[in-house]
Amino acid sequence: MTLVTSPGPAGGVPLRRVVRESWGRAAGHRLDPDELPRLELPEDDLEAWRRGHPLALVLPVLRRLLVDDAEGSGLLVAVGDEHGRLLWVEGDSSARRQAESMLFVAGAGWSEARVGTSAPGTALELDRGVQIRGEEHWNHRVQAWCCTAVPVHDPVDGRLLGVVDITGDARAAGSQTLPLVRATVAAMEAHLALSRAAAVAGGSTRASSAPRRTARELALAPESTPAPARLAALGRDEAVLSVGGRRTVLSARHSEILLLLAHRPEGYRAADLADAVYGDVDAVTTLRPEMVRLRHVVESVDPTLVPLSRPYRLPRPVALDLHDLAALLGRGSHRAAVRADRGPVLPSSTAPGVVELRAEARAGLRDAVLAAGSTDALTAFAEAPTGHDDETVLLELLRRLAPHSPRRAGVVARLEALSGRRDAIAT
C-alpha cells in the first residue's frame, strides 16, 4: 500500500489504489477539498429532468428494495443521472437533514470532476461499483460519511443511465452493501428491459397506419416480452441457467464466466475478464474461443442473452440467487437469507473473480447474522454448511442461548470438536 500526500483530505494516509487514482484525478482538476458541491439543476429544471429521465420508470423497484425500510436506519438512498447530478435523495429523514450540510441533495452535482472522490462520482467515472469510506473522500465535508454506488445501464444498448448510491455510517460501505446495491440495480435494469419490450410490442399493435415493414424487419422485431433469465450458482459447481421454462446446466468454465458477467452488468474489458477467470491478464487468447463456445450455448437457450463484446457484457439482466441473498439481508430478513443459502458460490472454482465473490457472499451473510440476526437466525446459520464449523458463530450462539437451553450441549460439543482438531493439527 502506498502513502500519498495530497492537497486533498488527510494527506499522508495509506490509500487503496482506486482511491489513490481518484485523488490524482481530483488534484488534476484542481478541486478545493473544502468547497461545497453546486446545485446544477434548479428546482424547475430538476422536476422536468426527473420526469423525462429513464430511471423515473424504475423508481418503484428501487423504493421497494432499498427505500421502504430505510426510515430510522440512518441511511440515504440516492439516484443520480449519467452526469453525476443527484435526481432523488430518499431514506432516513434525520440523515437527510444532516446530509444537507454537505449539499447531498437533489439537484446537486456529485460527479468526480466536481467534488472529487465519492462513491457516486467515482462509480460513474470508472463505470463499476465502488465503495468509499470516511477519509477516503477528497472533500473534507464528506469525510464523516461512507458510501457505496453502482452504475445503471440501458439494458438494450449498454449506455450509462446513472447511478444508485447508499450513503450513511460505516454500514453504508459494509461487506453486504455492494452486493445489495448490485442486486437492486440488476432488478432495475430487468424491469426497464421488460418495460421497453412491452412498449415496443404495444406500439406494433397500434401502428396499422404506419408503412408496412419488410419480411426481414418483421423477423427481427421482438414478438413478445423476453422471458426473465436466472442463474443459480450457490452450492453447485456447474451453474443452472433458466429462461422461462427452460433449464440448462453449464460447464464449470461457462458457469464462471456467465456468473461474473451477470454480477457486473457494466461488463469487463477483455484483459480484466481474463484476469477474473484465469488469473492472468494475458490469457485473452484463451478467453476468446471460450466466449465463442459460451455464445453458442447461450444462443441455443435464448438468443436475446448472447454475450456482447467491447466490453464483454450481457445484453439484458440475469437474476442471480447470489443477489437474492443480498436483497433479503438488505430487508433484514436474516432467517430467510439463511434458508436461501444453498452453499458457497461455485464451490470448486478457483477463478479469482469467483473466489472473491464467494468470500464476499459468505462474509456478507455471516456479518449480517452476527450483527443483527435473531438467535433463531444465528442457530440456523450455525446448522448450515456455511457456518457449521465457524467458532466465532458458535461462541456467539452459546452466549445468546439461555442457561438451560437444550441446544447448549450440542454447541459445546461442536466447539470441543473444533478445539480437538486444532490440537491434532498442532501436534
What is the secondary structure topology, with strand pairs?
Blueprint (H helix, E strand, L loop, with lengths): L1 E2 L10 E2 L1 H12 L14 H10 L6 H9 L8 E6 L4 E6 L1 H7 L12 H4 L3 H8 L3 E4 L12 E8 L6 E9 L8 H29 L9 H6 L8 E4 L7 E4 L2 E4 L2 H12 L6 H9 L5 H18 L17 E2 H10 L3 H7 L11 H21 L2 H9 L7 H10 L7 H19 L1
Parallel strand pairs: 8-11
Antiparallel strand pairs: 1-2, 3-4, 3-7, 5-6, 6-7, 8-9, 9-10
Helix pairs in contact: 3-7, 7-12, 10-11, 12-13, 12-14, 13-14, 13-15, 15-16, 16-17
> What is the typical, i.e. mean, pLDDT?
85
Number of helical elements: 17
- Give the total of beta strands: 11
3D shape? globular
Range of strand content: 5-15%
Structural class: alpha+beta
Largest sheet: 5 strands, antiparallel
* Helix fraction bin: 40-55%
Output the helix-strand order. EEHHHEEHHHEEEHHEEEHHHEHHHHHH
What does this 3D model show about the protein?
Helices cover 47% and strands 12% of the residues. It contains 17 helices and 11 strands. The strands form 3 sheets. The chain has a 5-stranded antiparallel beta sheet, with helices on both faces. The two termini are 36 Å apart. Residues 1-10 and 204-223 have low confidence and may be disordered.
Which descriptors would you attach to this protein?
427 residues, alpha+beta, 5-stranded antiparallel β-sheet, 17 helices, globular, disordered N terminus
Briefly, what is this?
It contains 17 helices and 11 strands.
